[in-house]
């Protein structure tokens, strides 16, 4: 059984950022690689995740911050800072959402039917167990006997970055 995770492309900087024009173009190029009729479409709650689903022509069946929320990691004066949707700045070392998400994300993935698509960001792929996640990428998560057995990068148009948000 396989589940697909699409990571958003290049985004603007700031709280709850939209995809940039480059990000829209990156994500658009991934559409031919997805299943034609996904069983379910799970979408993160950040603007960039919602933009990703729209660019791909997918209609989300569910929205959950388990696969990605509105916060955004940025470099401010050389320091990693997470900017929340209300523009609160949180030092990166105090932001634990990715680590806290692992259990819920694995349960979500295991509950999905074959050929489901998740529109998310790199933290989702990292939390699922693939450490070198990239933006504007497509991953296939293989589920075997009620566990994630493998995660394969199908293609990546973006790059991995130093942050996990």
Structural overview:
The structure is a single chain. The chain is α/β, with parallel strands linked by helices and 165 residues long. The chain is built from 4 helices and 9 strands, in the order βαβαββββαβαββ. A 6-stranded mixed sheet has the order 3-2-7-1-8-9. Strand 5 and strand 6 (89-91) form a beta hairpin. The longest helix is centred in the middle third of the chain and has 15 residues, at 97-111. It is globular, with a radius of gyration of 15 Å.
Topology:
Blueprint lengths: L1 E6 L13 H8 L12 E3 L3 H9 L6 E2 L8 E5 L2 E5 L5 E3 L5 H15 L4 E5 L1 H7 L8 E8 L2 E10 L9
Parallel strand pairs: 1-7, 2-3, 2-7
Antiparallel strand pairs: 1-8, 4-5, 5-6, 8-9
Number of separate strands? 9
Give the low-pLDDT segments.
none
Number of helices: 4
Report how far apart the termini are.
Answer: 28 Å
Integer average pLDDT: 93
Give the helix proportion (percent range). 10-25%
Order of helices and strands: EHEHEEEEHEHEE
Largest sheet report = 6 strands, mixed
The radius of gyration computed from the alpha-carbon positions, rounded to a whole number of angstroms, is 15 Å
Main β-sheet, spatial strand arrangement: 3-2-7-1-8-9
Global shape? globular
**Fraction in beta strands:** 25-35%
Class of secondary structure makeup: alpha/beta
Any key phrases for this structure?
165 residues, alpha/beta, 6-stranded mixed beta sheet, 3-stranded antiparallel beta sheet, 4 helices, 28% strand
In short:
This protein has 165 residues and is α/β, with parallel strands linked by helices. It has helices at residues 21-28, 47-55, 97-111, 122-128, and strands at 2-7, 41-43, 62-63, 72-76, 79-83, 89-91, 116-120, 137-144, 147-156.
